[in-house]
Design goal:
The complex is a heterodimer of chains A (256) and B (91). With 256 residues, chain A is of the alpha/beta class. Chain A has 8 helices and 14 strands. In chain A, strands 5-6-9-10-12-11 form a 6-stranded mixed β-sheet, with helices on one face. A 5-stranded mixed β-sheet of chain A has the order 4-3-2-1-13. In chain A, helix 5 runs parallel beside helix 7 (185-192). The chains are: A alpha/beta (256), B alpha+beta (91). The complex binds fe (ii) ion (2 copies). One fe (ii) ion binds next to loops of chain A.
Chain lengths: 256, 91
C-alpha cells in the first residue's frame, strides 16, 4: 500500500504571493493523499497573512496538515493565526498528532514547530544563565511532546513534521556557525523514539534535501527555496512484516 | 578606498555585513533570513531567492535608502512554483 505525501515549507505568504502556488496545488488531488506544510507559512505571523495562507492552501480536495514556524510567531498573534488556518480546514499540529485513513491504510502525522540548540557534540546545554537554560528547556519540552505524539499513534505509517531540523545532514549549504539556530538533535532523538518512516522539516532555506537520523529515519528538508517547486511528493510504501532494508528512488511522476 | 573613510552616518565596513543582514531580517517590509550579503571589491552583493518580484524590488529600495553611498548589486531570484515533475519513492 502506498501513501502519497505532498509537502512544502517556508512559503512565507503575504498578499504579494497570492495565486503563485495555486495552479500547482489544483493538481494535488491527482498527485497526493495529503499535503503537509512545514512552518513559516507567513512572513510575520499576522492574522491577515494567515488569511492569505488559508486562501492559497485551503479547499484543495486533500487534507492539509501544518506546523507553524518562527516567522509565524513574530507578531505574537499565534492563536489568531491558528484560528484562521483551522477555519479554512487546515489542521495545525503543535506537539499533537492526526491519523488520516486512505484506502484502509492509516497515516499518522505527529507535528511540532521544534526549536534550536544544535547537534550532538556541538550543542547548547541546560546550564548557566536563565536565558540559556530556558532556550534548551524550550527545545527539550517540544521534543518530548513530539516523541510522545509519535509513539502514541495507532497507525500503519508514521511521519514526523517539524519546522526546525532534526539532523544536521539537511543543513548542508548553511553556514556551520548558525546550525544551533536551525535545529536540534533532541528532535532527531524524539523521531527515533518511534518507528517513524519519514521526517519532514523546513527552516533551512540554504540547506539541502536529504538526510537520515542516527536511527535510520529518512529526513527531507522541504523548505520552498530548497525544493524549488510548489511542493515535493513522496510515495511512502507501508512497511511489510519480515522485510528489512530501505530504498529511496526518484521516478518521473506519471510513469507508474 | 575604504568605506570607513567616507564618514557620515555609515557604519564601519567591518560591521556593514551585519548591519545589512539585520536590516534584511528585522525590517518589517523585508523579513528575509535566507539572503546572503557579501562584499566583493568595493561593492556589496545581496544574493538569494524570494517569493515575489515585489519583495526583490523592496529589498533593493530599502538597502539603497539605508546605505545610499554603497554600490549594491542585488542578485535575487524568484522561487519557482511549478508542480513537481518527479516523485520520490520511499520503500
Ligand atoms: Fe523560513
Ligand atoms: Fe524558519
Amino acid at each position: 500500500m502506498v501513501i502519497r505525501i505532498a509537502a512544502v515549507g517556508d512559503v512565507h505568504m503575504d498578499r504579494d504571493v497570492l495565486g503563485r502556488f495555486r495552479p500547482a496545488l489544483e493538481e494535488l488531488p491527482d498527485r497526493a493523499d495529503v499535503l503537509l506544510l512545514a512552518g513559516d507559512l507567513t512572513r510575520h505571523g499576522t492574522e491577515s497573512e494567515a488569511r492569505c495562507v488559508a486562501t492559497e492552501f485551503g479547499n484543495l480536495g486533500v487534507p492539509v496538515v501544518a506546523v507553524l514556524g518562527n516567522h509565524d510567531y513574530h507578531c505574537d498573534e499565534v492563536p489568531r493565526v491558528i484560528r484562521v488556518l483551522e477555519d479554512a480546514g487546515i489542521v495545525v499540529l503543535e506537539g499533537t498528532n492526526l491519523v488520516v485513513e486512505r484506502d484502509g491504510t492509516r497515516l499518522g502525522i505527529a507535528g511540532a514547530k521544534g526549536f534550536g540548540g544544535g547537534f550532538a557534540g556541538r550543542c547548547a546545554s541546560e546550564f548557566g544563565e536563565p536565558e540559556m537554560k530556558a532556550f534548551i528547556r524550550t527545545t527539550q519540552a517540544i521534543a518530548d511532546q513530539l516523541g510522545e505524539a509519535l509513539r502514541e499513534m495507532d497507525c500503519d505509517v508514521r511521519v514526523a513534521l517539524t519546522h526546525y531540523a532534526p539532523v544536521p545532514d539537511t543543513l548542508a549549504g548553511e553556514p556551520l556557525e548558525i546550525y544551533p539556530f536551525l535545529g536540534s538533535y533532541l528532535l532527531g532523538q524524539a523521531i527515533d523514539s518511534a518507528p517513524t518512516e519519514l521526517a519532514l522539516h523546513g527552516h533551512a532555506h540554504a540547506g539541502s534535501e536529504r538526510g537520515t537520523t542516527p536511527g535510520g529515519v529518512r529526513v527531507r528538508n522541504v523548505a520552498h527555496p530548497v525544493i524549488k517547486q510548489a511542493y515535493s511528493v513522496f510515495h511512502l510504501h507501508a512497511p511489510q512484516a519480515g522485510r528489512s532494508g530501505k530504498v529511496s528512488a526518484i521516478t518521473r511522476s506519471g510513469s507508474s | 578606498m575604504n568605506e570607513r573613510t567616507r564618514g557620515g552616518t555609515e557604519p564601519p565596513d567591518d560591521y556593514l555585513e551585519a548591519a545589512i543582514q539585520r536590516l534584511l531580517t528585522e525590517h518589517t517590509a523585508i523579513a528575509e533570513q535566507g539572503l546572503t550579503v557579501t562584499r566583493r571589491d568595493h561593492s556589496l552583493v545581496v544574493c538569494g531567492e524570494v517569493e515575489s518580484a515585489q519583495r526583490r524590488e523592496e529589498i533593493l529600495r530599502l538597502v539603497l535608502e539605508r546605505f545610499p553611498h554603497l554600490p549594491v548589486t542585488v542578485d535575487i531570484g524568484l522561487i519557482r512554483t511549478q508542480a513537481p515533475s518527479e516523485v520520490e519513492e520511499l520503500r
